[in-house]
Specification:
The complex is a heterotrimer. Chain A is mainly alpha-helical. Chain A contains 14 helices and no strands. In chain A, helix 8 packs across helix 10. The radius of gyration of chain A is 19 Å and the shape is globular. Chain B has helices at 2-33, 40-57, 62-83, 93-115, 141-163, 165-175, 177-182, 187-213, 221-235, 240-260, 265-279, and strands spanning 120-121, 131-134, 137-140, 215-216. A two-stranded antiparallel ribbon of chain B has the order 1-4. The chains are: A mainly alpha, B mainly alpha, C alpha/beta. The B-C interface holds B 4, 7-8, 11-12, 14-15, 18, 108-109, 112, 116-121, 129-131, 137-140, 142-143, 213-215, 217-220, 222-224, 254-255, 258-259, 262, 265-266 and C 53-59, 61-62, 194, 222-223, 225, 227, 229-230, 232-234, 236-237, 239-240, 252-253, 256-257, 260-261, 264-266, 283, 287-289, 291.
Chain lengths: 320, 289, 429
């Protein structure tokens, strides 16, 4: 019985999202799309952070690659949205391969700092290569041509395209996590030396996790460019990289649905705070403090265990 | 041409020493506590604002403000470490970073609420304002002061760490925490002490920045913290010597880069960081992990 | 979230309020148009205002708020817009485009705004334009200066919802060239922000000055990234090039820092002619105080001493009395925006976007900054802002404009269709 609960829960969530798509007002639609896009970014990212134990501060660069790749394709090649998304993801994967190759030799703080450096280099490039990227104005006028014949120009229509990609992401990440590949990643996080003694090419697996998470970042970026109909260089800034970290932490690093829950909390909380106070940073910071201190790792662990029982079959979480 | 090169060099050295003054506290905190404190930029900002306020209250006495200001800030640092940071040492790196990041948000808004959202102009420091002609072009006197203050602080820190009893304990605890605890060092108290001292250094950097930058704005820590991070990393995490050298390199690179290869600005800074990390991940003087 | 149902106001009550308002005579605007007979407007009139309220530029958000709030209070005290109350909500736009877009959507879709105002960053304004077309509510830009907004988004792409009440980059680039042409400087250099605004203004300045004074040379440029606190390397570059004139569109805190550091380095001793298109901003003048050198050319989007009309003087005094500050230019644009909406709604007799847009096109507005006319083709407000040489004035603890020159918008604004011959100054007529 317990095995089917996670699927039921996700079915419920899917129904809610469908309901929002069909019945809610424009702003809720927009916010929900932002939550879904952030979830896609964070789900992919958490594969690297939660699963493989690598903290990257450069993933915003791949988000930006997706964003700009899609936009450049739209402006210069074809308005077909699927081709555009594909172009964005490809650019992100390429960048992740190159950057990842250099970064995965190191771990922990050095890895984090290297990814920060490369991410900011991408930011600098995007800002300064004005003739290609539009500089700090970004690329504007990104439209939404019909996707596979379905019109997506209106938000209420585009919502479903985002929903489809979100569902796809959830499914793919779930399959990865429960696959042999996902288990190896967990093993690498727990004890990299043991993993390499067991014959696993640690660096290769880390690179794979890096690239896959980069691909999802690129997907989120491509869809974001279509949602906002523009790109901007700040999408590559390291402070944007901090968002999936924040969101995964709030939701639960070791859990599957953590990034989704975290995204929801992040977007909704921010919106609520902004309605009642102009000093939103103060309250947001306090809330963050409360979340970290309140759980102090201990209570968070309890929630994680609760989610773990719901989201994954028993016995999957690594035992020492 | 020579005049130009000399001035570009001097500007770079001054900027380097300025970054060092901010980064030394960060290095110390990381070396001992193994925590990368995002909020260090906020302490820098708080230091600047407190010093500025004391400046105006005590009749423009810069030196007095410089003594009292950082003391107020490290009281705040004490509160942050003792009641918050202490409880997340055992958690993973992301939690610690997130905690310090939360404090950045809080401090940024608190400063805005306390001192206003607008920018505050700093008054001149008597005796150190104005400029000195070097090879026919004026070089600010205060920059020369910063160029002197940097090595002075470096020497003082070195002396404190090498020659004093407290310094020895700090070095012991940073290289082997468990052992230090086993031989009777009260590690939690030590950590608090080091954090407070590091905060004090950051706030001092902020106070010294007031006449150097000439302007206080909420969020002024954001730009300097990145430079401080780069310097701490390339110098070798926890190595004061490395951070000093890293600051010099960064300052000179920045100055020469802006003058001769202007297209690249921050790109150069991050390429430097990436190159150093790839060639030697432990930085110039860090210990191989 | 569905829009709230608004109860209809009593016609008689509205009529009485109108009479009272007309009688009180705020001296700003008299109610005109069709509405007096039969108000079609369901109150309140809601304006969503976003500006930068966090980070190093947080001061500007405050300035916007001061002006806008003052206007709201004045308008409501005099009976509101067409007899219904005016409500404004403020939000932090930050500097990021997605935040600005989210705020705009919140204002319109969730809060029920009829109009939007604000926006400091050019990039944000450009990103907002297509969103405004989708949301179909008028946006009055009060600070963002990029000419691409009006030339491309409004004129070329036909996004009619966007208007701009503040002077754009024409004032910074073209007008500066008109002033510069009479200066003895031939070699010009720049230290300007390393983003589109900086590039555009310098390019416009070079272009126009080159046409006005053929022997001009542009010998050096140094671009300072956003957030620069150390301008000394840039100052070094300029000193090396030995120009006769310096042009800089640095603004706000960065301009303050640059001027202080340039003075220290003796830049103003060797470069005698300096043009600061946004140097007359109150935060800069007040921030520098005595440290602002004399004899620099400054301008902005409004300067409190110009025009020397009773309306302006009264407003400045009232502003100073309430906020203990002289008005920043965004305070004036924020203030005037509310009155622009009031006039348009009352003229159109409705809050509906289409009607208000039609009313705004070509509308004349009497404001503290003088008479503004919203050009029909690109929705850009035309009004004059002076250029002046910095000088001391015993009345104020900061430097003000001494000798003043006015370059009219007819002289320096680009003209539709914005491409091709005769669209860029100098013009023959």
């Amino acid at each position: 019985m317990g095995r089917y609960v996670p699927y039921l829960l996700f079915g419920l969530v899917g129904l809610v999202l469908l309901g929002i798509g069909l019945f809610s007002g424009r702003f809720v639609l927009y916010l929900t799309m932002r939550v879904m896009l952030l979830s896609i970014f964070a789900l992919g990212y958490n594969l690297l952070l939660g699963r493989t134990g690598l903290l990257s501060f450069g993933h915003a660069a791949f988000f930006a690659c997706g964003s700009y790749g899609m936009s450049l394709c739209f402006l210069h090649v074809t308005p077909n949205p699927l081709v555009g998304v594909f172009a964005g993801v490809c650019l992100a994967v390429l960048a992740a391969l190159i950057i990842g190759f250099f970064c995965v030799r190191h771990t922990e703080i050095y890895f984090a700092m290297l990814t920060l450096a490369f991410g900011m280099m991408v930011f600098s490039l995007v800002w300064n290569l004005r003739s290609i990227t539009g500089g700090d104005d970004g690329l504007v006028g990104i439209g939404r041509a019909p996707c596979l014949g379905f019109p997506i120009a209106r938000d209420s229509q585009f919502y479903f395209m985002v929903l489809v990609f979100f569902a796809l992401t959830v499914w793919v990440i779930h399959r990865i996590r429960s696959s042999a590949f996902g288990l190896v990643l967990a093993g690498i996080r727990e004890n990299p030396q043991r993993a390499s003694f067991a014959g696993v090419s640690v660096r290769l697996y880390r690179l794979a996790a890096f690239v896959i998470s980069g691909a999802f970042a690129g997907l989120a970026g491509s869809l974001a460019a279509m949602l906002e109909s523009n790109t901007n260089p700040f999408s590559a800034h390291w402070t944007h990289s901090a968002e999936p970290v924040l969101v995964s932490l709030i939701g639960g690093l070791q859990t599957f649905s953590g990034p989704i829950v975290g995204s929801l909390i992040f977007v909704v909380l921010r919106e609520i705070i902004e309605r009642f106070a102009t000093n939103w940073m103060l309250w947001f910071g306090i809330l963050l403090l409360v979340i970290i201190m309140g759980f102090r790792g201990g209570a968070m662990g309890r929630i994680e265990a609760f989610f773990a029982r719901k989201a994954t079959p028993r016995g999957e979480e690594g035992r020492p | 041409m020579l005049e130009s090169l000399v001035h570009v060099c001097l500007t770079g050295l001054a900027q380097g020493m300025f970054v060092w003054l901010v980064a030394c506290g960060l290095t110390l905190i990381f070396g001992v506590l193994r925590v990368l404190n995002f909020a260090h930029g906020a302490f820098y900002m708080l230091g600047a604002y407190f010093c500025f306020s004391f400046l105006s209250w005590f009749g423009d006495n810069f030196w007095l403000g410089l003594i009292i200001g950082p003391l107020c800030v490290c009281a705040i640092g004490f509160l942050m470490e003792r009641f918050f940071l202490r409880y997340v040492y055992h958690l993973d790196l992301p939690y610690q970073l997130l905690l310090t990041f939360a404090f950045v948000l809080i401090f940024d808004d608190l400063v805005k609420m306390a001192w206003g959202a607008g920018s505050l102009g700093s008054p001149k420091v008597p005796g150190l304002s104005g400029s000195v002609p070097i090879l026919g072009r004026n070089f600010p006197t205060y920059s020369l002061f910063i160029m002197g203050a940097g090595p002075l602080v470096a020497l003082a820190l070195w002396a404190a760490l090498e020659k004093t009893w407290a310094g020895r304990i700090i070095r012991a605890a940073s290289s082997d925490r468990e052992m230090a605890s086993a031989i009777g060092v009260r590690v939690p108290a030590l950590y608090t002490g080091v954090f407070v001292f590091g905060t004090w250094l950051g706030a001092l950097g902020g106070g010294l920045a007031v006449p150097y930058v000439g302007l206080l704005t909420p969020g002024m820590g954001e730009s300097i913290i990145i430079e401080a991070f780069v310097v701490v990393v390339i110098g070798g995490l926890g190595s004061l010597k490395g951070a000093f050298l890293g600051s010099l390199v960064l300052g000179l690179l920045s100055s020469f880069g802006t003058r001769f290869i202007p297209a690249f600005d921050m790109f150069l800074t991050f390429i430097l960081m990436a190159v150093v990390l790839l060639w030697r991940p432990e930085g110039f003087f860090g210990e191989a992990s | 979230m569905a829009k709230k149902d608004i109860t209809r106001r009593d016609f008689v009550k509205a009529g009485l309020l109108t009479a009272a308002a007309a009688g009180l005579g705020t001296g700003v605007l008299k109610p005109t148009g069709l509405w007096a007979a039969e108000p079609k407007i369901q109150g309140p009139v809601k304006v969503g205002y976003q500006a930068i309220m966090s980070g190093t530029l947080a001061g500007y958000g405050e300035f916007h708020r001061m002006g806008a709030q003052m206007a709201v209070d004045e308008i409501n005290a005099a009976g509101g817009i067409a007899g219904v109350k005016l409500e404004v909500e403020f939000r932090d736009s930050t500097l990021k485009a997605p935040e600005a877009i989210k705020n705009a959507r919140y204002f319109v879709d969730s809060w029920g705004a009829d109009f939007l105002a604000g926006v400091d960053s050019s990039g944000q304004a450009l990103a907002l334009a297509p969103v405004m077309a989708q949301l179909d509510k008028p946006l009055m830009v009060t600070h963002a200066a990029t000419e691409k907004l009006t030339e491309v988004e409004v004129f070329k792409n036909g996004i009619k919802q966007v208007f701009r009440i503040c002077s754009p980059t024409y004032q910074d680039g073209n007008a500066a060239a008109f002033v510069a042409k009479d200066l003895p400087a031939k070699k010009w250099a720049t230290i300007s922000p390393k983003y589109e605004y900086g590039y555009t203004c310098w390019s416009m300045f070079k272009d126009t000055l080159g046409k006005l004074k053929g022997d001009s040379e542009f010998v050096a440029e140094s671009w300072a990234p956003f957030g620069t606190t150390d301008f000394r390397p840039h100052i070094n570059t300029i000193l090396d090039a030995k120009p006769e004139g310096l042009y800089s569109v640095e603004w706000a805190g960065e301009l303050i820092t640059m001027i202080k550091q340039a003075s220290e380095a003796g830049l103003f001793k060797s470069v005698k002619h300096v043009m600061l298109p946004v140097g007359a901003a109150m935060d800069v003048l007040e921030g520098l105080g005595e440290a602002m050198p004399d004899g620099l050319w400054i301008s902005g989007r409004y300067f409190f001493m110009y025009p020397d009309t009773p309306k302006n003087t009264e407003w400045v005094n009232a502003f100073h009395k309430r906020w203990n500050h002289y008005p920043a230019y965004v305070s004036e644009t924020g203030y005037s925006t509310m009155f622009a909406f009031k006039k348009a709604v009352e003229a159109a007799g409705s809050k509906e976007s289409k009607a208000v847009i039609q009313a705004l096109e070509g509308m004349e507005l009497d404001s503290p900054a003088g008479k503004r006319v919203f050009r029909k083709e690109d929705h850009q407000a035309m009004y004059s802002v002076p250029w002046g040489l910095t000088a001391s004035n015993p009345k104020y603890p900061f430097k003000v404009m001494g000798k003043t020159v006015v370059i009219t918008p007819e002289q320096c604004f680009n003209r539709p269709p914005f491409e091709g011959e005769g669209t860029k100054p100098p013009f023959k007529s």
